[in-house]
């Protein structure tokens, strides 16, 4: 297989050990690394998440956390925002699905159970998604740290 | 307006060592009252900062957080503080233009109040290994700013939706005539 053929080949299935990325704003203020759990709003479906929660596969073939951050249309996210990386296997362990869905960035996938369409359907659906968001942020407390969830970029060391 | 008046029992029923004013802060040596004051002030500043965020703040077309959601959040903070709650750990907006006030408590209990309407919201208490509990809650102003006009009494514009009529006391015409415009009026309990 030539390099060109490899580039145009469909993305392989997502492996449980892969990390999936989602950028988010830190506004207002700075991301608080002292908090045990990240903000649940990171997993809240956004306007364009009509068919599922958008994530991007991390890796040389796809994107890096920094590339994803820099791809945001919002300059404040490019400068001050963060990117959450979550282990794909931890998502499927919650009985959620990861579907490959080509998008703007390479390696785009969705979690169809967390879409804005479902969220806006009924109060009961809202509660289900809020519960899922809660379960996802709670993965941040898995030991050892950063095994399942990590945040990019990490704070600069004091004095640097 | 449905639901119950806000009480954050999970916050208020914390062990005594978490109660405001019962300890000195380990890092600063300041009495907890001072620490709590700072934390509440920071919480209000956070709401103020949210109110200034521009449309598209999430990078995906999120609307600005409306003035009444911000004001409702501010009133919620004042109400909780008055009730003896500890200050929240974080306050942040959601892409659907609501505000979440969040406490990360011991034993991995997380309390979130999502302010989604005028003086109302949903309290979600989540546990590490049990289903979350949801409750609609409302809160109300203890003082409202009354505006007097030639055609009678107009309460604070934030009191004028049908849902909120029951939470403000009608002011008699005589009271109205004896007061100046924009006077503050203490509501009966």
Supply the key terms:
A: 160 residues, alpha+beta, B: 189 residues, 2 domains, 6-stranded mixed β-sheet, 3-stranded antiparallel β-sheet, 24% helix
Detailed description of the structure:
The complex is a heterodimer of chains A (160) and B (189). Chain A is an alpha+beta fold. Chain A has one domain. Chain A is built from six helices and six strands; from the N terminus they run H-E-E-H-H-E-H-E-E-H-H-E. Chain A has helices at residues 3-8, 65-70, 75-80, 88-92, 116-119, 123-138; strands at 19-24, 53-57, 82-87, 99-100, 108-111, 149-152. Chain A is globular. Chain B is built from four helices and nine strands. In chain B, helix 2 runs antiparallel to helix 3. The longest helix of chain B has 20 residues, at 32-51. Chain B starts with a strand and ends with a strand. In chain B, 32% of the residues are buried. Mean pLDDT of chain B is 71; it is low at 1-27 and 155-189. The interface between A and B is medium-sized, with 32 and 31 residues.
Largest interface: A-B, 32 and 31 residues
Q: Please report the distance between the alpha carbons of the first and last residues of chain A.
A: 46 Å
Q: H/E element string of chain B?
A: EHHHEEEEEEEHE
Q: Which secondary-structure class do the elements of chain A indicate? A: alpha+beta
Please provide the count of β strands of chain A.
6
Strands across the major sheet of chain A, in which order? Answer: 4-5-2-1-3-6
Largest sheet of chain B: 6 strands, mixed
State the helicity of chain A in percent bands: 25-40%
Work out the oligomeric state of the chains in this entry.
heterodimer
Low-confidence stretches of chain A: none
Low-confidence segments of chain B: 1-27, 155-189
Secondary-structure element order of chain A, N to C: HEEHHEHEEHHE
Class by helix and strand content of chain B?
alpha+beta
Shape of chain A: globular
Distance between the termini of chain B: 17 Å
Describe the largest sheet of chain A.
6 strands, antiparallel
CA-based shape of chain B: globular
How many helices of chain B in DSSP terms? Answer: 4
């Amino acid at each position: 297989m030539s390099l060109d053929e490899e580039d145009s080949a469909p993305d392989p299935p997502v492996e449980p050990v892969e990390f999936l990325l989602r950028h988010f704003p830190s506004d207002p203020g700075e991301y608080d690394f002292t908090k045990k759990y990240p903000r649940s709003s990171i997993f809240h479906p956004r306007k364009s998440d009509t068919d599922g929660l958008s994530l991007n596969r991390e890796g040389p073939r796809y994107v890096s956390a920094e590339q994803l951050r820099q791809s945001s249309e919002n300059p404040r996210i490019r400068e001050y925002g963060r990117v959450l990386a979550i282990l794909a296997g931890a998502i499927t362990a919650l009985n959620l699905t990861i579907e490959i869905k080509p998008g703007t960035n390479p390696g785009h996938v969705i979690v169809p159970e967390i879409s804005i369409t479902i969220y806006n359907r009924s109060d009961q659906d809202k509660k289900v998604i809020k519960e899922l968001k809660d379960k996802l942020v709670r993965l941040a407390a898995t030991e050892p740290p950063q095994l399942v969830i990590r945040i990019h970029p990490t704070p600069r060391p004091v004095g640097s | 307006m449905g639901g119950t008046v806000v009480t954050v029992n999970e916050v208020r029923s914390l062990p005594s060592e978490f109660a405001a004013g019962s300890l000195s802060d380990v890092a600063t040596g300041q009495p907890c009252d001072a620490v709590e004051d700072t934390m509440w002030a920071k919480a209000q500043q956070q709401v103020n900062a949210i109110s200034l965020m521009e449309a598209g703040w999430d990078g995906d077309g999120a609307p600005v957080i409306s003035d009444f959601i911000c004001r409702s959040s501010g009133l919620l903070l004042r109400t909780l503080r008055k009730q003896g709650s500890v200050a929240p750990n974080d306050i942040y907006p959601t892409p659907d233009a609501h505000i979440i006030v969040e406490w990360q408590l011991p034993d991995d209990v997380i309390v979130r109040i999502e302010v989604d309407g005028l003086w109302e919201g949903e309290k979600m208490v989540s546990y590490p290994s049990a289903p979350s509990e949801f409750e609609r809650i409302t809160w109300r102003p203890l003082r409202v700013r009354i505006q007097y006009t030639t055609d009678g009494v107009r309460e604070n514009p934030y009191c004028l939706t049908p849902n909120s009529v029951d939470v403000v006391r009608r002011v008699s015409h005589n009271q109205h005539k004896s007061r100046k415009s924009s006077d503050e009026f203490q509501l009966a309990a």
